[in-house]
Design a protein that fits this description.
Blueprint (H helix, E strand, L loop, with lengths): L5 H11 L4 E7 L2 E6 H17 L7 E5 L4 H12 L3 E4 L6 H10 L2 E6 L1 H8 L10 E4 L13 H17 L3 H18 L23 H6 L3 E3 H4 L15 E7 L7 E6 H15 L6 E4 L6 H13 L3 E4 L6 H8 L3 E4 L1 H17 L1 H8 L4 H12 L4 E4 L6 H9 L3 E7 L6 E4 L12 E2 L4 E5 L7 E6 L6 E2 L3 H7 E2 L2 E10 L5 E6 L4 E2 L5 E2 L1 H8 L5 E12 L2 E10 L1 H7 L7 H16 L10 E4 L14 H4 L8
Parallel strand pairs: 1-11, 3-4, 3-5, 5-6, 6-7, 10-11, 12-13, 13-14, 26-27
Antiparallel strand pairs: 1-2, 8-9, 9-19, 14-15, 15-16, 17-18, 18-21, 20-21, 21-22, 23-24, 25-26
Helix pairs in contact: 1-2, 1-3, 2-3, 10-11, 14-15
């Protein structure tokens, strides 16, 4: 299976299909199209602009933006210039964004106006960041004459901090007073200008944006486009194409380095395994920074001349599905559950339809109506989390084809998937062509840790050789998942070696990360976060908390608090600290523990001792 760099793979498709539609987006109620010729022209002009701005091969470019054809064009342009893309979840909190931007050594940042407010507060801690480009072409201005005094005062304040080595407590106290004074002086909520002198204006990040604009380090998409012919592609098959950050057990995200060869191999294997034809149409609604959507939902269709339509929103998936009628659709179990529920609700709402669907002899009449609405012959793929077999059975009953796949970021991503030639309810199908899968130390039931070897396995974790050595041994990647094979070679996922929590939306949550955040509360002495099963295949984030009774008593002037008062106080603590985490990582429910957790000699909680006593009824 021969592979080429991703940018050249897509360029070949652009040259083969210049007039075909690459992307569709809905604007003001109408679908707007972007042809392959327009895609090629745009990303080549963007590549020329990057080169003119001083971009060098090997530099890292972070993207924090909503899914769009410009997101993809910028991605391809960076690869064309020999750069490395760092796609980042736009929903992350400031602390999480800061860690990834800093750890990835991003020199360029591609984003949009809505995310500038949170990002600009991080600039002071990102010394390697050289340039920012707004993909949405928002007009930008350095500063008005009325804003200048604020920024001059802010700059003077920064000098004082440096000269007098002020402590964090002193800085915070004075900046808090300054913000209160600003609110008193400028109380009007009707302000419509774009002044950056807003509450928080004295803080480090907010005073940098006007300087960036004046120095030409903040540009728009149109500013960067150059009609000049860019240099020939500088990408190499074996070099890193993307660094994708995935949460680690220590609470800090690790950057998985995927090469052009990793991605191109997985695309080719996916096309062969699923029997996909040229010119497929898709509806894209999953986060584009996620490897599943990025590789399988965007790059794969583009490589075979397909059309990618961007959904308006999650709420409008049903409406967009009927409008687009895709032949190929990626989703997570939560979306397929919602889709199944909606279709069944419509069937049950009409007496005649309900009656016809009830009997196997007349059910095909209703199945044909459903296929006409969602698209004839649509292939639905479920990934990101375990699919409830009842959902798969429900789709089959509707006459729709739903396959379950299995993959992870570090394997680019697909490891195994059901296909038109091999389906087994409850399984994730058979390994992809060219991918080896074996089970490490299987137990008597044939269940062992899933190990993967092949051209899809990542190069390693960025700047983390220890984590790389632990994850890849003799070329075999240790997934941390438990699985088994049936006699036909179908793989079944049975659980996780460690404590990874997978939510209904396919998001990964590591308990340690949430625990570290909750332990910032003085009232929480110990905590154990775990996944509470809400269905046989999905979990929610729950916690068991051991309160610090001494601190609680001191807070109440030595008087013992009632149980309900403790619960109320800790509930507020959990809510407040949860704001530092992405929404899907927040604790949904917690219980209190009366005594300390049992621990090892290294003070780690013995989860296997605690878990059997956890109630399963919610």
């Amino acid at each position: 299976m021969t592979t080429v760099p991703i940018d050249r793979l897509i360029e070949r498709s652009c040259q083969r299909n210049p007039t075909a539609i690459a992307f569709r987006s809905k604007l003001n109620g109408h679908w707007q199209s972007t042809s392959y010729a327009e895609l090629r022209s745009s990303y080549r002009q963007f590549a020329a602009g990057l080169t003119a701005s001083g971009f060098k091969p090997g530099q890292h470019v972070a993207i924090v933006a909503a899914a769009s054809w410009r997101w993809v064009a910028a991605y391809l342009a960076v690869l064309h210039c020999g750069g490395i893309v760092v796609p980042i979840d736009k929903e992350l909190k400031a602390s999480e964004l800061k860690h990834i931007l800093k750890d990835s050594d991003a020199g360029f940042l591609l984003t949009e106006q809505p995310y500038l407010e949170i990002l600009q507060d991080l600039f002071a801690d990102l010394p390697k960041l050289q340039r920012i480009v707004l993909l949405d072409d928002t007009s930008i201005a350095a500063e008005s004459s009325s804003e200048r005094p604020f920024h001059e005062l802010s700059a003077a304040w920064n000098r004082l901090i440096q000269e007098h080595a002020l402590s964090e407590a002193q800085i915070e106290a004075i900046e808090s007073l300054a913000n209160q004074a600003f609110k008193q002086l400028c109380p009007s909520p009707q302000r419509t200008d774009t002044s950056s002198a807003t509450p928080g204006w004295l803080a480090a990040g907010s005073r940098q944006l006007p300087t960036w604009i004046r120095k030409g380090r903040l540009q728009t998409w149109s500013d960067l486009l150059k009609p000049d012919e860019p240099p020939s592609s500088l990408s190499q098959t074996d070099q890193v194409a993307v660094i994708l950050y995935t949460s680690g057990t220590t609470g800090q995200a690790k950057g998985a380095m995927l090469s052009h060869a990793n991605l191109a191999f997985n695309i080719a294997a996916g096309i062969e395994h699923l029997g996909l034809q040229r010119g497929i149409t898709t509806l894209s609604f999953l986060p584009i920074n996620h490897v599943f959507e990025q590789v399988c939902g965007i790059l794969l269709p583009l490589s075979i001349g397909g059309t990618v339509s961007f959904a308006e929103s999650l709420k409008k998936i049903g409406e967009n599905l009927v409008e687009v009628q895709p032949t190929f659709l990626l989703g997570v179990p939560a979306v397929y559950r919602l889709l199944l529920d909606r279709i069944m609700k419509n069937i049950q709402a009409k007496p005649l339809t309900r009656l016809l669907f009830k009997f196997p002899l007349t059910r095909p009449l209703i199945q044909a109506q459903i296929r006409r609405k969602v698209g004839p012959g649509t292939t639905f793929i479920s990934g990101g989390a375990a699919l409830d077999p009842a959902i798969a059975a429900g789709f089959t009953k509707l006459g729709l084809m739903l396959f379950q796949g299995y993959g992870i970021t570090e394997t680019s991503p697909i490891i195994a998937a059901e296909s038109p030639h091999s389906r087994q309810p409850g399984s994730v199908g058979q390994p992809m062509p060219g991918v080896k899968v074996r089970l490490d130390q299987p137990n008597p039931d044939g269940i062992g840790e899933i190990l993967v070897k092949g051209p899809n396995v990542m190069l390693g974790y960025y700047k983390n050789q220890a984590a790389t050595d632990a994850a890849i041994i003799d070329g075999w990647y240790r997934t941390g998942d438990l699985g088994r094979f049936d006699r036909q070679g179908n793989l079944f996922i049975c659980g996780r070696v460690k404590n990874l929590i997978v939510t209904a939306n396919g998001k990964n949550v590591y308990p340690e990360e949430v625990e570290n955040e909750l332990l910032k509360s003085p009232y929480i002495a110990e905590v154990m976060v775990y996944g509470h099963k809400t269905t046989p295949s999905t979990e929610e984030v729950y916690a068991i908390i051991y309160p610090d009774q001494e601190v609680l008593d001191a807070r109440n002037r030595g008087k013992k608090l009632q149980q309900q008062d403790i619960e109320s106080l800790l509930r507020q603590e959990v809510l407040t600290l949860g704001k530092n985490l992405a929404d899907y990582k927040r604790v949904k429910k917690f219980t209190l523990r009366e005594d300390e957790f049992p621990k090892t000699t290294t003070r780690k909680i013995k989860r296997f001792v605690v878990e059997p006593d956890i109630p399963t009824d919610g």
